[in-house]
Design a protein that fits this description.
Layout (H helix, E strand, L loop, with lengths): L6 H15 L6 H7 L14 H22 L5 H11 L2 H10 L20 H19 L1 H23 L4 H12 L5 E8 L6 E8 L2 E2 L3 E3 L2 H23 L18 H4 L2 H8 L15
Antiparallel strand pairs: 1-2, 2-3, 2-4
Length: about 290
C-alpha cells in the first residue's frame, strides 16, 4: 500500500495511477475516491463503495456486449457461463494486478498485510475505477479501458470452459474452497416412466445445497449445481466485507449490494429464478 502523507504525495500517486491506466481523468477527485477503500475513508460515503456498485453494472454491460458480438452462435446459457468467469472477483483481481492497482489503492493499515492487499479489495477497487472512468469519460472511455484487459480473459474463459456447465464450475469452486468433489442426491422423482421429473440436490463435503427440479437428471443436476454456486460465492462476497467501518449516521445502512454483482453469484442469480415444483405434481387443482 502506498504511503500518502500530504497533498503533494497524493498528486504524485494519482499521476502514476493515470499513467498505469492509460487514462487521464478530467475530475481528479473522482479518481482519488475510486482508489479509497472504506477502511481508509472518513466515512463510507467518502469511499469507493458506491462506485464499486456502479462499476459492476458497467463491467457487466461491456462484457455482455462483447460476448454477444464475439459468439453469435452461442446460446444464452453458454454466454452466461463465460460471463460468470469474466466478471468474477477473481478475474477482476487479476485485471487489477495487470494495471498494478495494488500500488495505488488506499486502505487502512489493518488491511495492509506486509504490503499485500487482499484480492477482494483489489477486485472492488477495480470495479470502482470502471465506474469512475465511465462517469468521467462516458461508456466509450470505459469500453476502451476495459477491452484490452477483457479480451484475453474472454478468450481464456471460452477456451478453458469450452462451453462448460454449472456442474463443472461447481467442481472447480468446491475443490478450491472445500477440498471436496460434489455429489448429486436424488430426493424425489415423479411421473410416469416415460415422463419423469427429478428433484436433485448437490452435496459437497456433507453439506446439502438447495435442490432443483428437472425434466431429466442432467437438467436437475445442472440447476442444483447452480444453486450451490450461488451460496458458495455469496458467502465469499459476505466474508469480503470489513467487520466495522465508520458510518455517516447511526441509522443502519442497507445491504451492501455491490458485492452481489462483483462475482459469479450475481450472474448465476440472474439466469434463473427460484425453481418451482413441476406443474402437475403436488398441485391441488380441485
Amino acid at each position: 500500500m502506498p504511503e500518502v502523507n500530504n497533498f503533494t504525495e497524493l498528486e504524485v500517486l494519482l499521476d502514476k495511477c493515470q499513467a498505469a491506466l492509460s487514462y487521464r481523468f478530467h475530475d481528479i477527485e473522482l479518481l482519488a475516491m475510486c482508489l479509497t477503500h472504506a477502511s481508509s475513508a472518513r466515512t463510507r460515503l467518502h469511499s469507493n463503495e458506491r462506485l464499486e456498485f456502479f462499476g459492476d453494472a458497467v463491467l457487466g454491460l461491456v462484457v455482455c456486449e462483447a460476448l454477444y458480438h464475439r459468439f453469435p452462435e452461442a446460446a444464452e446459457g453458454e454466454l452466461t457461463r463465460i460471463k460468470s468467469i469474466v466478471v468474477s472477483r477473481a478475474t477482476c483481481a487479476m485485471m487489477a494486478s495487470r494495471v498494478h492497482l495494488e500500488e495505488f489503492v488506499l486502505v487502512g493499515k489493518g488491511l495492509d498485510h506486509d504490503g499485500h492487499i487482499p484480492s477482494s479489495i483489489l477486485a472492488g477497487t477495480f470495479e470502482g475505477l470502471i465506474a469512475g472512468i465511465y462517469l468521467d469519460g462516458g461508456l466509450e472511455a470505459a469500453r476502451t479501458f476495459l477491452m484490452p484487459l477483457l479480451d484475453p480473459e474472454i478468450e481464456s474463459s471460452a477456451a478453458t470452459l469450452h462451453m462448460q456447465n454449472f456442474k463443472s464450475l461447481l467442481q472447480h469452486i468446491a475443490q478450491k474452497k472445500l477440498g471436496s468433489t460434489p455429489n448429486y442426491r436424488v430426493l424425489d422423482e415423479r411421473g410416469p416412466d416415460h415422463s419423469k421429473v427429478f428433484h436433485i440436490s448437490a452435496v459437497v463435503a456433507g453439506r446439502v445445497f438447495p435442490a432443483a427440479w428437472g425434466s431429466n437428471k442432467k437438467e436437475a443436476e445442472q440447476t442444483a449445481a447452480q444453486h450451490a454456486l450461488e451460496e458458495l460465492l455469496g458467502e465469499d462476497a459476505a466474508e469480503a466485507q470489513p467487520a466495522s467501518i465508520a458510518t455517516d449516521s447511526p441509522v443502519a445502512e442497507p445491504e451492501n449490494t455491490q458485492f452481489l454483482g462483483a462475482d459469479a453469484a450475481s450472474v448465476l442469480n440472474a439466469t434463473t429464478a427460484a425453481e418451482p415444483e413441476p406443474f402437475g405434481f403436488g398441485v391441488d387443482n380441485s
